[in-house]
UniProtKB/TrEMBL annotation:
InterPro entries: DNA/RNA_pol_sf (IPR043502), RT_dom (IPR000477). SUPFAM superfamilies: DNA/RNA polymerases. This is Reverse transcriptase domain-containing protein. Signal peptide: none annotated. It holds the Pfam family RVT_1. Residues 1-221 form the Reverse transcriptase domain.
Amino acid sequence: MEQVIKKIICKHLEGGKVIGNSQHGFVKNKSCQTNLIAFFDRITSLVDKGEAVDVVYLDFSKAFDTVSYDILINKLGKYNLDDATIRWVHNWLDNHTQRIVMNGSQSCWKGITSGVLQGSVLGPDLFNIFINDLDIGIESTLIKFADDIKLGGIATALEDRVIIQNDLDKLEKWSEVNRMKFNKDKCKVLHLGRNNQFHTYRKGRDCLGRSTRERDLGVIVDHKLNTSQQCDPVAKKANMILGCINSCVVSKTQEVILPLYSALVRPQLEYCVQFWAPHFKKDVEKLERVQRRATRMIKGLENMTYQRRLKELGLFSLEKRRLRGDMIAVFRYLKGCHKEEGENLFILASKNRTRSNGLKLQQGRSRLDIRKKFLIVRVVKHWNKLPREVVASPSLDIFKSKLGKCLSGMV
């Protein structure tokens, strides 16, 4: 029955565009990667222009467990869900009880008045509805992945920092009204850009701590926006998993090793990689060495060159796979499931040029490497070189097929 109610709620939310664009968690066609790209496109652009930027990472205390049922039900009505659905959700929430068992002693059963069940079918959607109005009235850039929230804005002048502080005050007020609490010990400020004044912000009466690096949705982001910080632990973990495969798996045939590598090792190297793609040659090589090692493990290929092994196995180098991933991401932003967001990220070039693939992008100017190497900028020259028949693909699957053939001809 939860599945049925979920379909009703999701259809209503999508049809009325109820959930704001700032939410990327548990939302169709959005992910950790779209969250990071959307937020840091704005941040890197500001830093590239010479602005000081402050990013505040916010953390709720037991967010899913503290969702108030009566407030949630009121919000369901506010977003015009039908009465029958609201009654069903109310009854579903109202029927949950809990008790404490300690050293063999048991408390009485008590009804639960807050908390959406994590792991339930409806829980994520109900949480998104509950937190949807969090960013109303916020002037800074705010983005969410479920309960992971970050707020960023210019911090060059005093009035800029006042805006960020005012936004933090609004968020504190929201948490009080909605009976949720921020874990202020885990709320941190990342100061970016030259001439940053390292301003101290408050959350209520408490001052927020500073940080030089944060793990943002599994990706390490530091105060210099240096992707090397991500490459080291990723390569280390991938090599560790590969070592376990090498020592625990007896058969070293292609049929055994290649699926294990593809399922367990390579995803470690490519999680959100369109956001944090390595800039420096040493980092590119560090990641590539993992695949070199994996392909060398396969029986019969040990003495071949790396390029020959890739050809035998039908694989691209990791560097070429990242380029392929960049192109696929752009296709999604321009013609696919992320088209609405793509309108804010990419600018189409003038169509009066005869030598064009039909969807040519405008190349922006950048000063700093953190911007030049960011997906939105670095991919333009490669996308503009794609043949018209590839760009004009009517679907993502056809685009991937044609793109693969195009990249196969590259060294």
